[in-house]
Specification:
The complex is a heterodimer of chains A (121) and B (199). Chain A has 121 residues and is α/β, with parallel strands linked by helices. In chain A, 46% of the residues lie in helices and 19% in strands. By secondary structure, chain B is mostly helical.
């Protein structure tokens, strides 16, 4: 099964993006990690690990906002057994497209081809 | 010679100095970053000291293992995974030895530096902590690392234009500001000098 993980420095962004993409992906497992304890801005290795490991899917597309989130994701990936693709694309648009396409069960090649123009990182 | 005991002194001094300078470090980060480097590092190192006190490490390796895991979990910004990567690579370089010669300490820090470069996909000259670590490790190997040299190396990051990290969004406007990651790394190397490790 394939799923999506949303990571943002701000909890509200992660929660909002998840709510948005769920509209087009009712059957796609989506988990998130946003912000730090106490409402602080940042990303937490522990929360990202939790979002990745608690996602029902064993193959994950990860979408993030800023570069330092990716550093944490990369460290989690090194410790995970799952198949994980970090997508260096615009967070909202990229996650939305991937969610819609995963819902229609197309091949990964099609998803990557559609994400390609959104690569901004 | 690096031992478990002076490694603890090194880490305690590093933590105290970062915590004492957290406002200044965050101020450095304000014009060219998100203004949280000092607060993030201070939070991570406060937790590190608490963890080292709660569970006293049995070995030299355990000292750095605790530091690596706490910084990874508690820092929150890019400096968490970057410093943590350095410590994890240093642990590998220690190879379960109880003590390290000065030359082995330089090798250990070189391994840490290489891990930071790989993690951040950055090289020398991009206005990052690598610009402090690279010449500092070299000077350490030659026996010429001093507090004055560290200050000079930190200042030398000011004229650089940032091409990696948050500061790179500013382009030319990043020029003229000291790199906060290099400043905190300077504290790290000064703490090494004062800890008795190299005597």
């Amino acid at each position: 099964m394939r799923g999506i993980v949303i990571i943002s420095h701000a909890k509200e962004i992660a929660v909002g993006v998840k709510a948005l993409i769920e509209e087009v992906a009712k059957d796609v497992p989506i988990t998130l990690a946003g912000g730090l304890d106490g409402g602080l801005i940042g990303t937490s290795f522990d929360d990202i690990q939790q979002a990745i490991e608690s996602n029902e899917a064993d193959e994950l597309f990860v979408f993030y906002d800023l570069g330092s989130a990716k550093l944490n994701v990369d460290m989690v990936i090194e410790l995970s057994q799952k198949t994980i693709t970090v997508c260096d694309v615009a967070l909202v648009e990229g996650a939305y497209i991937a969610a819609a396409l995963l819902q229609t069960d197309v091949d990964n090649d099609v998803i990557f081809a559609n994400l390609e123009p959104l690569n901004i990182k | 010679m690096l031992t478990k005991d002076n490694a603890l002194v090194w880490m305690a001094t590093f933590s105290q100095e970062v915590i004492a300078n957290k406002e200044f470090l965050s101020e450095l980060d304000s014009p060219i970053g998100d203004g949280d480097h000092g607060f993030n590092m201070a939070r991570g190192l406060t937790e590190t000291q608490l963890a080292l006190e709660a569970t006293p490490p049995a070995t030299l390796t355990d000292v750095f293992k605790t530091v690596a895991m706490q910084l990874l979990s508690k820092v929150g910004g890019a400096s968490g995974p970057l410093y943590s990567s350095a410590f994890l690579a240093m642990i590998k370089a220690i190879d379960n030895k109880d003590t390290l010669t000065n030359e082995e300490v330089a090798d250990m820090l070189q391994a840490g530096l290489e891990s930071v470069m790989m993690r951040g996909k950055a090289v020398v000259g991009e206005k990052t902590m690598i610009d402090l670590w690279t010449p500092a490790v070299l000077a350490l190997r030659e026996g010429s690392l001093t507090n004055d040299l560290i200050d000079t190396l930190v200042e030398a990051t000011a004229p650089l234009k940032a091409t990696k990290g948050r500061a790179s969004y500013l382009g030319d406007r990043s020029i003229g500001h000291v790199d906060p990651g290099s400043y905190s790394s300077g504290i790290f190397f000064k703490a090494l000098l004062s800890s008795g490790v190299l005597e």
